[in-house]
Amino acid sequence: MSVHPTHREVPTQMVDVEGTAFAYRDLGPRTGTPVILLNHLAAILDNWDPRVVDGIAAHRRVITFDNRGVGASGGRTPSTIAEMATDAVAFIRALGLEEVDLLGFSMGGFVAQVIAEEHPNLVRRMILAGTGPAGGAGIDKVTRLTALDVVRGALTFRDAKYYLFFTTTPHGRSEARAFLARLEERTHDRDTAISVPSFRAHLKAIHRWGVQQPTDLSRLRLPVLVANGDQDRMVPSHNSADLARRLPDARLALYPDAGHGGIFQHHADFVPEAVAFLDD
Predict the structure, then answer these.
(1) In this structure, what are the phi and psi dihedrals at residue 13, rounded to the nearest 5 degrees?
(2) HEC assignment per residue over 237-264
(3) For 23, phi and psi rounded to 5 degrees?
(4) Quick check: 105 and 127 in contact, CB under 8 A?
(5) Domain segments of the chain: what residues?
(6) Which of 2, 10, 112, 231 is deepest in the core (most CB within 10 A)?
(7) What are phi and psi of 100, to 5 degrees?
(8) Considering the domain 13-279, what is its CATH architecture?
(9) Residues 6+ positions from 189 with CB-CB distance below 8 Å
């Protein structure tokens, strides 16, 4: 039996962040640099793959949280990535942390880039998964693509992530079903679903990031692991290659026959690579 609670059983906690209650979960050993997980579009605490959270938490302290206005966190959801980054830093400070590692997935990867640029002394290492740089090709199409697959999911009685995160191959479809089943493993103390206004705010923030002028990524001098599936439709995979090329100290991992949720589909490969990178 694990010494530490797992993603399935760790309690949800609340912390006051400048007058607003933020919901979070904190698991894993209390040694080493904590890893802060930054979530994707419309995501709440229960949208993190338990295999990724527990896999990293077997070695490192892992903290997941709902940003302002999302899930059980209070306040109004920001409609810019910069504001989300400000809130994330305030959350980290509210926990009394002075140095962290970041794992940003999709929209969370946008937020991670801003944090690392604006607070270089706060972030030691960073993992950017299923994400891309400001102004990256195709990112401004996320709103349309998401809307289409949300409708598609409703018509087929499936979670939209079945279509958005995975390839259409038999293997991809099988992995999609397995991933969605894992998201239901936690049966108590589940998070609150995102509201429609918060979802719209996320879409606005992503669109603004997609049409934003590119930033000078050479200023991010920290070690970065860039990971994605090789067939990402949401944030096209060439954005991952672009990130790895433009960042001064980056390594790239592209997983075969995998889409936006490549780190979830290939968690058996991603977790050891992530842990090794963070411990390097």
Answers:
(1) -115, 165
(2) CHHHHHHHHHCCCEEEEEECCCCCCHHH
(3) -90, 140
(4) no
(5) 13-279
(6) 112
(7) -140, 160
(8) 3-Layer(aba) Sandwich (3.40)
(9) 11, 12
